[in-house]
Design goal:
Helices cover 21% and strands 34% of the residues. 50% of the residues are buried.
Length: 920
């Protein structure tokens, strides 16, 4: 395989055009920057076919004769280079006059997956005729307009831009709803030397799915407050009987209904005038405790005329967050330590606050903007004048009150949201996106996302389309300042599917596990578009902990995706630093972030696994030097016993990330010897030795394998606790010496620190005998790939199956229908690591794998996991493979249907498998 980075892209026709002179960017621009270039041309004869080659910074839409031909989001344009694309087009031209328009968004901000370049576009349209070609390319004859007063950046949520859009009416708008009265001039021509490096990579969607709402689940009038009150729980918890009470006293002149919003992360009961009205039990989990202190509706109370008493009684568990007080005593955004509340429809300065001892408390005033507080809105429902279409893709509102309609799209969806508007007056629409809903509001502020777009609507008919994908289960549409009638129609979400599951399925005798497999497959699909990503709701970045499980799922569910996986593996190597370290994600803004060593370690298993599934020796030889570079960097920290010592920053898993961040966020202390990191290091040495041997590099292979032997002996000697039968989390580190974690023990077993039998005993104790958090730190879902491989590879297939079932099964009860980042539903509801379940069940439960690289030999070794039957259709790089096995006394009756391309491949099966094979 030749790396896509081995040859730079060179345009043979035209010039790079820009809206700005060099050195004028970003200047005063600090948000999203839209511009349009266009060219009219005449065709006497239509071409047989046409190809567009284009490079642009950054996202673009191409229209020919007012019809959208290409919609490209270049999330793989990052901090070092830009990719060009080739698009085959047809049926776009007409005889006579034609118009090509390119709408471009260049981002004047840095985020986790992007550092801006100077805005530019270079397009070549190649039209092919019999024996002849004609070219149209960007140059000084094109027209260019900067689009002002259309879309402005409202907030950047990690990597997702939410905008304020001024929407013109249809008669006054152009393509995609842009203003129609643009001022055009000649573009600035940029010399090739001013451009970033350009490489060619085109990855188009396999299909497009259109989603419409399943139902309108709530409607009414609404009100949101821009101000909330915050209390540090250290003022609330007292020493008297461990009481924790926050008491609000207020005098009402008349009876009234009051809505209460409170911290989404808290554990308390609301007591009003002596009666319990509701309770919330939602503290962040121990594997990821620090969370954003967002607000959500809690309850409504019916206040009496005269004095009223509202009390919040906090659970003892909330006390443990007081340990954050030293760092966050002045930061109400930290959940658990701070309690926030809004008492709607009542002046806050008329409320007296006290704790359980009667001490008067003065709340911290937390000021924000209405659009950031929509998730805590107060509502009155339902709307009597609401008319919803059937199917529910539109509705009509009348009246002058602020009204809302909340839609359920039925499980998690991702795509470009669009709808049509017909309004009798101007007004504003808020679009709030959520994964959970409560009392007519959505969790649009969870994780600090501020997931709200704003549309300023003109009177008359107009059309809205989000420029970026939006990810949600629930869409809350809130209307403000309208009068008369407003009709919204044709609500839809268009999703680009880059990972095509075709007719893959998994059906065992366990319905719950079938559901988990489907959720994992959907998780993988949602966590991939132009790049693999951490998660679609928060972080559009190609992290090395989330990308490999998604790649692995592809080997069994998405036709292998060999070219994409190979490109990404090469891309990590291409971004390697001079000292040998890899970035934790690519493409990306490297900045000053400390590399995470476990991510570098995961690269080794990613390459190793891909080589076994692809047999791609070209890829292997390209990246082996990068793997050696990482090992050389680590060897700087290798002590006399062959262990890595005092290397920062580890990360590893949300359960043991304490060893990563403590040294770099507080006073520095020696990191010591961290077991998980040394297990990763051991695995890297072993896998690099194996791969170098297969590539013919015997000297390097022998060196690495000899180093691995020394490391293995020392890990057993210094890190294994014979009395407990477990590996400690580390040595020369007081915290790690007293801790034991499932993550460290799983890695030690996976990479063979102990013989398989002894490793199995260690994992049996860690996963079935030890008490989570009391005896051992449990792994989080974030670590499911490594956990599953370790348990299956040591023969604990029933333990692996039970662990998947127990941990991931409850996630199916949540609205998203996808797999989470942590065991609690408070962080990402769709995390790329959840893709691992597809791989684990396909590889071990279905039981087919490459016994030699590239399936030169096909291996069959199923694990029954306590189940009686299994049927599956796996979508591999060779085509679909059908598996149907039944457990019997002697082992497995195993029926296998393979694509005919594999007919000459030898099959190696386990001794307890009775195999029958068909070819199709």
């Amino acid at each position: 395989m030749n790396s896509i980075f081995s040859k730079k892209m060179k345009f043979e026709h035209g010039q790079a055009v820009s809206p700005l002179e060099l050195n004028a960017w970003p200047g005063k621009h600090n948000g999203t920057f839209y511009w349009l270039i266009r060219k009219s041309f005449t065709l006497d004869i239509l071409p047989e076919k046409a190809i567009i080659s284009i490079a642009a910074d950054r996202h673009y839409e191409i229209y020919i004769n007012s019809k959208r031909i290409i919609s490209q989001r270049n999330y793989f344009n990052a901090d070092k280079y830009i990719f060009s694309q080739k698009h085959a087009i047809k049926d776009a031209f007409v005889r006579d006059e034609n118009l090509i328009e390119i709408l471009i968004r260049t981002d004047a901000f840095k985020n986790k997956n992007y550092i801006y370049f100077h805005p530019f576009a270079w397009l070549v349209l190649e039209m092919i005729y019999p024996g002849n070609k004609k070219y149209i390319a960007t140059d000084s004859t094109w027209e260019l307009a900067i689009i002002e007063n259309w879309r402005t950046l409202r907030t950047l949520a990690i990597t997702t831009a939410h905008e304020i859009t001024k929407l013109p009416s249809l008669p006054e708008s152009g393509i995609m709803g842009i203003p129609g009265n643009l001022k055009f001039s000649s573009p600035v021509i940029l010399p090739p030397s001013a451009l970033p490096e350009i490489y060619e990579w085109t990855d188009i969607p396999k299909r497009k799915d259109t989603h419409i709402p399943k139902s309108a689940i709530s409607s009414g009038t609404w009100k949101a407050e821009a101000e909330s009150l915050a209390f540090n729980i250290s003022e609330i918890f007292t020493e008297i009987d461990q009481r924790a009470v926050l008491k609000a006293s207020f005098d009402c002149e008349e009876k009234k209904t009051i809505s209460i919003a409170a911290s989404g992360f808290c554990a308390c009961k609301a007591i009003f005038n002596g009666a319990c009205v509701t309770e919330r039990n939602a503290l962040p989990g121990r594997d990821l405790m620090r969370q954003y202190n967002y607000l959500s509706p809690l309850c409504k109370i019916n206040a009496e005329k005269g004095m009223n008493i509202l009390e919040f009684h906090f659970a003892p568990d909330q006390r443990e967050f007081m340990k954050f007080n030293a760092m966050y005593s002045d930061n109400p955004e930290v959940a658990g330590l701070w309690f926030r509340t809004i008492i709607h429809n009542f002046p806050s300065n008329s409320i007296q606050w006290h704790n359980g001892e009667g001490k008067k408390l003065v709340p911290h005033i937390f000021k924000g903007e209405v659009q950031d507080m929509i998730g805590s809105k107060a509502v009155n429902a339902p709307l009597k004048n609401l008319k919803v279409s059937s199917p529910p893709s539109g509705f009509t509102l009348t009246g002058i009150d602020n009204q809302y309609v909340l839609f359920d799209f039925g499980k998690l969806k991702k795509g470009k949201l669009s709808f049509r508007i017909d309004a009798e007056s101007p007004g504003r629409i808020y679009l709030a996106y959520g994964f959970m809903t409560e009392h007519g509001a959505v969790d649009c502020a969870r994780n600090g996302k501020k997931a709200v777009d704003i549309i300023e609507v003109a009177p008359g008919k107009s059309f809205y389309e989000a420029f970026e994908d939006r990810t949600f289960v629930y869409l809350d549409m809130l209307f403000e300042n309208f009068s008369g009638k407003i009709n919204v129609s044709d609500i839809r979400l268009e999703e680009n599917i880059f990972l095509n599951e075709k007719d893959s399925f998994f059906k065992s005798s366990d319905e719950l596990m079938n559901g988990i497999f489907s959720a994992s497959l959907r998780t993988a699909q949602l966590c991939c578009d132009e790049i693999y990503m951490d998660n679609p709701e928060r972080e559009h970045a190609q992290w090395l902990d989330n990308t490999p499980p998604n790649m692995a799922a592809g080997y069994y569910a998405f036709g292998g995706e060999m070219s994409k996986v190979g490109k990404v593996i090469s891309e990590y190597a291409f971004n390697q630093k001079e000292d040998g370290q890899l970035p934790g994600y690519v493409p990306g803004a490297w900045g000053e972030r400390i590399p995470l060593q476990c991510h570098m370690a995961l690269y080794f298993r990613t390459v190793w696994r891909h080589f076994w599934y692809s047999g791609d020796y070209g890829m292997l030889k390209n990246v082996l030097p990068s793997m050696s570079g990482i090992i050389s960097f680590w060897n700087k920290y290798r002590n006399a016993d062959g262990l890595l010592e005092n290397i920062e920053t580890i990360f590893g898993d949300w359960g043991i990330h304490i060893y990563s961040y403590a040294p770099v966020t507080r006073e520095k202390s020696p990191v010591g010897i961290i077991t998980a990191m040394n297990a990763y290091y051991l695995g890297a040495l072993k896998m690099s030795g194996e791969l170098n041997r297969l590539a013919g590099n015997e000297k390097i292979a022998s060196e690495y394998l000899q180093m691995a032997e020394t490391t293995t002996v020392s890990m057993k000697k210094y890190l294994f606790d014979d009395e407990k039968g477990l590996f400690r989390d580390g040595a020369k580190n007081k915290l790690a010496e007293r801790n034991y974690s499932q993550a460290a023990n799983a890695l030690c077993a996976l990479y063979g620190v102990l013989p398989e039998k002894d490793g199995r005993a260690v994992l049996k104790k860690a996963f079935t005998e030890c008490r989570p958090w009391l005896d051992i730190i449990p792994v989080s879902p974030h670590f499911c790939m490594q956990t599953g491989e370790a348990l299956f590879e040591t023969g604990l297939h029933k333990t692996a199956y039970s662990w998947i079932r127990k941990g991931f099964g409850p996630m199916l009860n949540a609205p998203a229908g996808t797999l989470w980042e942590t065991w609690e539903p408070y962080v990402s509801h769709c995390q790329g690591t959840g893709s691992a379940i597809v791989y684990l069940l396909s590889r071990y439960h279905c039981g087919i794998y490459p016994a030699e690289p590239g399936y030169a030999q096909i291996g069959i070794r199923p694990y029954d996991c306590g189940q009686k039957t299994m049927r599956a259709r796996l979508n591999t790089q060779f085509g679909t493979i059908d598996i149907d096995w039944e457990k019997c006394d002697s082992g497995f009756d195993y029926k296998l249907s393979l694509p005919s391309i594999l007919q000459d491949r030898e099959i190696i099966k386990a001794t307890d498998v009775k195999l029958s094979v068909q070819y199709k």
